[in-house]
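note to self: dont lose this again. the chain is below, predicted strucutre after it. 946 aa total, dont forget to put it in the shared folder this time
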Amino acid sequence: MLRTARAAGLAFFLATTALSGAAFAQAAPAAVRTEAPPIVYKQRTLPNGLKVFTSLDRTTPNVSVQVWYGVGSKDDPQGRSGFAHLFEHMMFKATKNLPAESIDRMTEDVGGFNNASTYDDFTNYYEVVPANHLERLLWVEAERLGSLVVDEAVFKSERDVVKEELRQRILASPYGRLFGLYLPQATYTTHPYKRPGIGSIEELDAATIDDVRAFHQAYYRPDNAALIVVGNFDEAKLNAWIDRYFGPLKRPAQPIARVTAVEPPRTQPGVFNGYGPNVPLPALAITWKGPAASHPDAPALTVLDTILSGGKSSRLYNSLVYEQQIAAEAFSTADLPAQPGMFGVGAIMASGKTLEAGEAALMAEVKRLREAPPTAAELAEAKNELIAAKLRERETIDGRGFALGYALLVDGDAAKANTEVAELAAVTAADVQRVARKYLADNGRMVIRYRAESERPAGETAPAPPAPPKTVAKYSGPVFALAPEGQRVAPPPLAEPVAPVLPKPVERTLPNGLRVIVAQSSELPLVTADLTVKVGAWADPAGLAGSAAMTANMLTEGTKTRSAQQVASQVEALGATLASGAALEASSVTLNVMPDKLDAAMAIMADVARNPAFAAEELERQRQQALDGLAVAYQEPGSVAGFAAAPVVFGGTPFGHVPTGTPASIGKLKPEHLSAIHRAWFRPDNAILVLTGAITPEQGFALAERAFGDWAKPSAPLAAAPAVRPVVRPRAVAIDLPGTGQAAVTVVGPAIARSDPEYYQGMVAATVLGGGYSARLNQEIRIKRGLSYGARARLSTGRTTGSFSASAQTKNESAPEVLDLIKAELTKLAAEPATAEELKARKSVLVGGFGRELATTDGLADILGNLALYGVPLDEITLYTTKVEAVTAPQVQGFAGRVLDPAKASVIVAGDAKAFSGPLKAKLPALEVIPVDRLDLDSAGLKKGD
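---
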């Protein structure tokens, strides 16, 4: 996993930030938890070699079914990179007894979900469904293992989808090439870990149907698979079903091909230069060869990784981002797969800073770890962070299944899932220094430099990739086809449903007006505390977009009694996470922590919410980081289209600007602007505190009183928030990003408030349109035509208004076609009612997703906080299913006609306009084409000079 020490405003990673070594060196080490509640499981092996792991949980109404295969991208045939990943896609299609897309019908459409992932060493397929669907899902997994249909049509369709995924993740992302292509290519010379897991357009295009069938035959076999079932089940029935459906599958006679390549050690330093279009800030990575996950040094390297970049008190953030301010983001990674892997550090430079400065700073931090062990406080903090993350992983049944599968396929033993916490806790400071010296030597490093294509030396061209072989395999084995309908084996029947046990929130209002809600929801040792304040982007002063967002972001950057470094080091020493942010209508401070450290963590949370310093020097840091983040985001089609939505839909209202700000508005912010928002709106009678997890109501109310009871309510009455009433003014805007790999196509418009009587009709309508894999937009755009990696729709509701969007990313030249498809589906939704079967399936998506969100402490806190924010009674969590199920097809059709009318919506397309502006302008004569370097989201015209 790539761990990132991130500047708060940066848009290109989801990660944590870090601060000063001096700050945490002065803090007393927090106690380290040396064990976690074990995952209790049973295991056995069928005669055909299939490994079976089962873990019972009676507290959930659901079950997770997972099958892990010992095949990953390292097993891709030579000249066919991306093959394991391509095959992951094909496994969701037809079998001998199941038509294509049936797996989604049996998971998503009954309130569950399914997904899969391809790593270097394995491919895993996983589902969560209501427990009464367990037998059916076992049958499905045995079906696709034993009789998958691999035909030319499915192969070509899924190849097109994978190519769109590659364009979206690698070619349209400013740093996609660096992390997806160049980093492995430069790090490894011999082992197939050097190849990109997602492949290349050329090698995907070269693949044949024989290649695909041979790959399936070689690796998809019971003796190369592990079945993992976690959740609510009857053990005797489960074992009988496993024997019935998986037992007859035959173990092939031929041995499984395994990678035997050995990566040689690096004996001298190297440099790799890579380039890409739309790279606003230069970046670099430095990598070394590392051990395998099962090596005794792996825990120490994992702790070293966390010391370098695990949170706001990590060394890389402190040095590069916070103190020197030469990097917008700094990262490290202990990428230790099943065979020897790599360790890396890196940075995306701040505006105007050089790669040479970044390399020197990174190597200085590596040298520090080689020359001296970490402090006791650093060591304890890193361990607490890692162990708390393991606990969070185990909140869900699928998370527990993943822990078992990963330990089995990467570490070589599922039992490692229950020993890894003790192994991390046993790491000493001397161990960390020892592995730094052993693996991170100067002469073993590879420096990977990444710049904009415009900086490539004159006359130099990108090397052409080698031509892939025309054929890598000949297949002569069995070929399955979908059986005629009357000859198919029917899926097993469903069992009786298991009733969910819903949390019972209890609330109390403190004398100062703070509303406190507590819901005991878990026996796992985790608690979430979420403080919601009823102020958001609507409070931004004119010309100062992003004021509320910056106010919220700055809460954790220092208080009147704690510096930014102290806030970071004290929180992370507890293994806690503390985050703050703002949206259109609310700001929040969210804490997640183990119960034994809750009192100490809540004291810090209350301090940052109540007493922020808004120091000028911290604001300047945050400003520069935010500007660097926007420089990156303005080169990402999806991001820039999203930024344009608010001024297009809500122009002229308090929502009519970019909530996170623009380069111009962020440059104007001063501490007094932030203090004014905090002084006016951050008050106990305008706030809601929600506590969920392993905490009783009595404990929660007492804790709230200790942390917030003396928060004084101002004598001045609370001002009313404005009503937002957008005027419908449809626009068509194309934002030109020359050279970008994809176009983002979005149809957006105003919608309803949360209090609208048609709220549930609207939610169902949006889900029919674009809620999930089987929804209409994805069916038309991805499944039928392979034009996108995914298409979706969303209804967002607020206090007095809302918005809807329908979107997809596609290759640039396909943008007009995708726009037509989106509009056609919006029109169809209003023209004819959904079928009973479709409506039932989409309702199940909503109900199932709601139930899974309730199952985590963060998700439950978010639901309860939003209900309170919008004045909805808390017992809505018990009524949600009933209200969704009550929606009728005519109500969905009527809502679509009134609210989702494409004629009243705006169109935003961001991409390489030369590929689509002509055809798009023919469809939309009023189309405004705006070069990204002339984009001004503070202007009503969206263009500089307007």
